[in-house]
Amino acid sequence: xxxxxxxxxxxxxxxxxxxxxxxxxxxxxxxxxxxxxxxxxxxxxxxxxxxxxxxxxxxxxxxxxxxxxxxxxxxxxxxxxxxxxxxxxxxxxxxxxxxxxxxxxxxxxxxxxxxxxxxxxxxxxxxxxxxxxxxxxxxxxxxxxxxxxxxxxxxxxxxxxxxxxxxxxxxxxxxxxxxxxxxxxxxxxxxxxxxxxxxxxxxxxxxxxxxxxxxxxxxxxxxxxxxxxxxxxxxxxxxxxxxxxxxxxxxxxxxxxxxxxxxxxxxxxxxxxxxxxxxxxxxxxxxxxxxxxxxxxxxxxxxxxxxxxxxxxxxxxxxxxxxxxxxxxxxxxxxxxxxxxxxxxxxxxxxxxxxxxxxxxxxxxxxxxxxxxxxxxxxxxxxx
Length: 384
Ligand SMILES: *Cc1c(COP(=O)(O)O)cnc(C)c1O
Description:
With 384 residues, the protein is an alpha/beta fold. It folds into two domains: 6-15 and 258-381, Alpha-Beta Complex (Aspartate Aminotransferase, domain 1), CATH 3.90.1150; 18-255, Type I PLP-dependent aspartate aminotransferase-like (Major domain) (Aspartate Aminotransferase, domain 2), CATH 3.40.640.10. It contains 13 helices and twelve strands. The chain has helices at residues 18-24, 26-29, 40-59, 73-87, 103-114, 132-138, 161-171, 242-255, 258-278, 306-315, 335-339, 344-348, 361-381, and strands at 6-7, 67-70, 94-98, 118-122, 143-147, 174-178, 197-201, 212-216, 282-284, 296-301, 318-319, 350-354. The strands form three sheets. Strands 2-8-7-6-5-3-4 form a seven-stranded mixed sheet, with helices on both faces. A three-stranded antiparallel sheet has the order 9-10-12. The protein has a two-stranded parallel sheet with strand order 1-11. Strand 3 (94-98), helix 5 and strand 4 (118-122) form a beta-alpha-beta unit. Helix 1 (18-24) runs antiparallel to helix 8 and helix 4 (73-87) runs parallel beside helix 5 (103-114). It is globular and about 65 Å long. The two termini are 30 Å apart. The structure holds pyridoxal-5'-phosphate. Pyridoxal-5'-phosphate binds next to helix 4. Pyridoxal-5'-phosphate (PLP) is lined by residues 72-74, 77, 102, 104, 149, 153, 178, 180-181, 201, 203-204, 212.
């Protein structure tokens, strides 16, 4: 029996890298001035803030003045959608998104519908891809914004955002992408990929929780959503979380490393292959290969409940998830698995295992030493 936790729920949150924590430490008790204060001491905090902004900007191939720090992915998504909607409502009231977004997009869209905005939810194919031709068809002269998730948090599908962005650029519609899962795990480049707004966060990339950023292309018509002391270019007021922001930037810097991606890809494919060969009647949800997030495994096990499987894995100290962590309390099958066409039984039989750069081959082998036994046991108990 394994005593240490085998953490395969990195899609929900990650361990802060100890080196990130070291970088953050001085900003609690030593360099704690307010970055808005004019004294030299406060300006040290300001320097740390701007240095972090440079790092995040570089990681997206953008400019520092295009980066706004926020409290995380949820806030960045709310800010992007609500503010673009209200700042551009003289042009139109139509917004396009997809059926496989994170709840912080979907529930923001539901709220915007109540405020009089018209939302189109694009379908996806059986691997979770948006059809660019369908996007092109639904854009009207009332459309102001398209928001499509980059790397899907449940099934790992990486959208061709370059192509989607190009369509939006030609049609002169703002293009936003939620890149919380894909940031540092695949290429993100605002120039090459034609993106106007990007949501990223820290706690999915081994940084601290409660920090994120919104990239906003220069010249975008967007007004403040949170008002106050005019921080962050007057777009997002509130004294900046300097330790968090410093940690986020350090995590981004350390994360941008192809070696980590390659390592996760190898372990991901090993895990998928082992499960598919050693356990019968298993289906991979989402695409294979380089169009899948390098750390995502999502499988449906015929005849059993993912919840039950996750419960047994927990007893062996293996952290997994079913659906997405945010909807775990609801018994409804995941909206993403429904959108790719799974029936309720297959959707409820799904298990998500998400790796990180800290995941080891030994951990994968440990999972393989218990998973087939648990699946067999549950299938023997199953009435189906
Ligand atoms: C985690 C996540 C969010 C929410 O980010 P928080 O920083 O936890 O608020 C949004 N979108 C996606 C795709 C995510 O994975």
